Structure formats: C-alpha cells, structure tokens
From TrEMBL:
Residues 2-113 form the VOC domain. It comes from Streptomyces hoynatensis. InterPro entries: Glyas_Bleomycin-R_OHBP_Dase, Glyoxalase_6, VOC_core. This is VOC family protein.
Length: 113
C-alpha cells in the first residue's frame, strides 16, 4: 500500500470566510460539497469543514484523510497489519472511502477509487 497524499482536516466557524485564505495560501480553487451533515471545502491539501457540533465532531474525530490508489487493497493490508474497520468502504461525493482505526488508536479516512 502506498499513501499518495495526506489531506489535513480543519474545522472552521465560517466556511465562506475561511475559503479565500486557503485558496490564496495554496493557489488552489476550493471544491465545495456537503457530507454527513457538514459543509466542506477541499482546497489543496486542506479539507475545511463547518456545521453543527454533533455532525462536525464526527468529521473532526478523524485525524486525516489518506489518498490511496487502490482502496480495497489498502484496507485489506491495513487490517492484516492490525487496523480495525470503523466504517467500511462506501461511495461519497469524492469517490470511495473507508474509516480505519490504526493499532495505536488513531482514526484515519482512506479514500480512493
């Protein structure tokens, strides 16, 4: 398994106010979408999100998003190495995702085709 990119998650109070700063910082245009009760913006290596506390806490409970070339293979390898599946692979607005708890306790979202 090779991790192709890491996306940092950042909760913000006002998504509309935060996006221009991150667009300027990264030189990227934000891609906005909604998922699991929160509003999100993907800007370069950042995933900004805002929403009601309960929904935002579920998103904030994941340390980072790890992009992989083969999601099924990555999940299989991580589980074989001791990770536990928190949420199995499922479709999202940006591809497919699975959430795993690593043996050390960290929770990570894996995304890929």
């Amino acid at each position: 398994m090779a991790i192709e990119a890491v996306v940092l998650r950042q909760r913000v109070e006002d998504l509309d106010a935060a996006v221009p700063f991150y667009e300027k910082l990264t030189g990227s245009t934000a891609s906005r979408f909604a998922f699991a009760g929160v509003s999100l913006a993907s800007v370069g290596p950042f995933l900004l999100f805002s929403g009601p506390d309960e929904a935002a806490q579920r998103v904030a409970g994941v340390a980072a998003t790890l992009a992989v070339a083969d999601l099924d293979a990555a999940v299989e390898e991580a589980v074989a190495a001791g990770a536990a599946v928190v949420a199995p692979a499922s479709p999202t607005p940006n591809g497919h995702r699975a959430v795993l708890r690593h043996p050390c306790g960290g929770v990570f979202e894996y995304v890929g085709p």
